[in-house]
Amino acid sequence: MNAPQTLHQLGQSLWLDNITRPMLDGGILAGYIRDFAITGLTSNPTIFEHAIGNSDAYDEAIGRKTREGKSGEALFFELALEDLMRAADLFRPVFDATGGVDGWVSLEVSPLLAHDAARTIAAAADLHVRAARPNLFIKIPGTTEGLAAIEASIFAGVPVNVTLLFSQAQYQAAAEAYLRGIERRIAGGLDPKIGSVASLFVSRWDAAAGKTLPSSLNNQLGIAVAQQAYRAYRELLASPRWRKVAAAGAQAQRLLWASTGTKDPTATDTLYVEQLAAPDTVNTMPEKTLLAFTDHGQLRQPLPIERNDGDAVIAACRQAGITVDALAAQLQREGADAFSASWRALLENIAAKARKLAEAAAR
User: Fold this and answer.
1) Catalytic annotation on 139?
2) Running DSSP on this structure, what letter comes out for residue 276?
3) Rounded Cα gap, residues 223 and 218, in angstroms
4) H or E element at residue 105
5) CA dist., res. 13 & res. 273, Å (int)
6) How far apart are the C-alpha atoms of 344 and 338, rounded to whole Å?
7) Which parts of the chain fold into alpha helices (H)?
8) What is the mean pLDDT of each run of 10 residues along the chain (363 residues)?
9) Helix locations, 133-270, DSSP H
10) Phi-psi map region of 99: left, alpha, beta (phi>0 left; psi -120 to 50 alpha)
11) Quick check: helix, strand or coil at residue 320?
12) What is the β-pairing status of strands 281-285 and 254-258?
């Protein structure tokens, strides 16, 4: 049994943080499902920017859709949905076998909508209908406006992956939005079983704080923040409020570790996978991190619930000059900005490919 399979047996779901058309066409994703216990997949604008920009695998589809009169966001979402619907079908047996707990793929709304609740709600509903897959999450950022869209989307029956969460407080706000949506469904006599995960970004903490902190605290802040969020997650699942909605048929919004590729070249490349082993959570990891963990990863003890070393680390980071809440807000803003930049580059790349293909066809 390899390391990913052992981690899966612990009770943590391993999802791949990547998708490309060659990965689907070449059977690579199917191999990861078979050999490495991969039970889900996430995508984001940066992933698609790289997938489309660094490959000619999408050129035929771009040329054909351009001739049909499609362009911009409409063309991109058709490309993305084609890939993610295929991936969702690969994971459908897992989804069915686990009663909808696992086997999910994720598609993000335009990051340009991060501060527009009404348009996010409309976009999420549209993509959910177009995908026509029960195991496809719509990713909505946990911004102030995003939280309103999350509640409304859950109430409308749209499964949501809450993205761009960076702290315990931001996680709790996302969990609250999810719960309000579920409680509204129960009050309205609707089925409360709507899937959701809350994605906490980990490694970006250490990349942002590394220059400020002493070497004794290097690469510890992200894990400490994750430990605090995990404790809040377990406390929520044990609360009377959650037990009430669970008794009505609701399914837990699982906590997901995102941004788990190590950014510090002096740290082990499996740091965030090994340190964040925890039952009833998800770790979505880049392909490089998955292969490294398979090759030389070591499974550690699961995260403790009662004892939480993260509090002491965060206290030490505060003394060293890190204001955790302010940095969390900064990281969320920067994350939204980075996805917006990738989104614009993605659409520009598609437009450039479309022009080049049209010129070649006209010769």
Assistant:
1) yes
2) T
3) 11
4) strand 105-108
5) 11
6) 10
7) 3-10, 21-25, 28-36, 45-53, 59-67, 72-97, 117-131, 144-155, 168-187, 203-209, 221-237, 240-247, 271-275, 287-296, 310-319, 324-362
8) 93 97 97 98 95 93 95 97 98 98 98 97 98 98 98 98 98 98 98 98 94 92 95 96 98 97 94 95 97 92 75 94 95 97 96 92 79
9) 144-155, 168-187, 203-209, 221-237, 240-247
10) left
11) coil
12) parallel
Place of tokens 């993260």: 310
CB-CB contact of 42 with 136 (8 Å): no
Q: Which two tokens stand for residue 358?
A: 């049209």
Task: Report how far residue 264's alpha carbon sits from residue 39's, in angstroms, rounded to the nearest whole number.
Answer: 27
Written as six digits, the tokens of 80 are: 């993305």
The number of residues making up the chain comes to: 363
Q: What is the pLDDT of residue 1?
A: 85
Q: Which residue has the tokens 């590729």?
A: 261
Which of 65, 70, 139, 288 is the catalytic position?
Answer: 139
Exposed/middle/buried for residue 59 (C-beta within 10 Å: 0-12, 13-18, 19+):
middle
Tell me the C-alpha distance between 229 and 90, whole Å: 31
Token duo for residue 354: 């479309």
